[in-house]
Amino acid sequence: MRTFVVLSLLSLFLVGCNATENSAVSPNANSSPNSTAASAPSSQSSDRQAQGKPLVITTVAPITNIVSNIAGDRVEVRGIVPEGTNSHTFEPRPSDGELIKQADLIIINGLQLEVPTLELAEAAKPKDTKIYEVGTNTITQAQWIFDASFPKEGGKPNPHLWVNPKYAEAYARQAADQLTALDPAGADYYATNLKNYLQRLDQLDQVTRKVVASIPPKNRKLLTYHDSWAYWAREYGVEVIGAIQPSDFNEPSAQDVAKLIDQIRATQVPAIFGSEVFPSKVEEQIAREANVKTGNTSDDDLPGEGSADAMENTNPKHTYIGMMVENLQILAKNLGGDPSLVDSLETANIVGPTATAKAKP
Hints:
By secondary structure, this protein is α/β, with parallel strands linked by helices.
């Protein structure tokens, strides 16, 4: 069914863009209240486009936020995957195809996260517009992680690299490189933004290590609903003992649930963690029967309302760093650590309205 829908969309887009040619990806290189719909540009976006600024299309909100912190006011950055949406299965809308036809650069995660979006981008983009995969270019194939939600036999590695702040740093560096190649006149501007943003990400990394160190060693175990914490756990010495959600993204069977409850009791983890994007009654059932706490974390839904584009956002917590700070608070609170350790972190963007507001006396 997904293939039929995608092909139907592609046929519409190809007619609208006079059958623009495909271009290969460089090998090395359900809307929510929080989302800014690509089909309805804000007045700010329209103004910047009218000024002749390059248009960069991104996918999930964390990538949009990272890229826009480097791009600042020299580039229009538009994310097309609404927050609170399953990015693995998100089917692009006709308006997304129209936007992609105008793109000067497309930055996606890769690692087979956004397959329907990638198919559309390859079909609808201008011939010379590059598609760059930040995730694919952050780690080697030997560093891929396969797990409960992304089994090796399925052929798709876990794509959630950005949850690891060290990999988010790599995303920011690559964004600066790609923006500089697109707009060489802005090289110094992008370099300055990159330097300032990397300082924020380094602070996030340091505080993350302190938070994990505050959690009793016996509690440094994660059982989550959607398996999006694998690369974070590997970086910070936390063991992922499993995931509730099967690889087909359906609810687990009664037999799976029983095994998970037994596993929780055997490992004596004090809490399990759900997902903002995948609400589940099964998670509550498991927590109740295993007598553990539960908390909902997020891997791509930024806190509160706002725009993932830093230049349009007025909520200082609706950022990639804000999402990770909230996650750390939830993890620390439920695993016996110190959530107050994150209080020193600045969550606001380094550019845009929140940065300007912070700079005022």
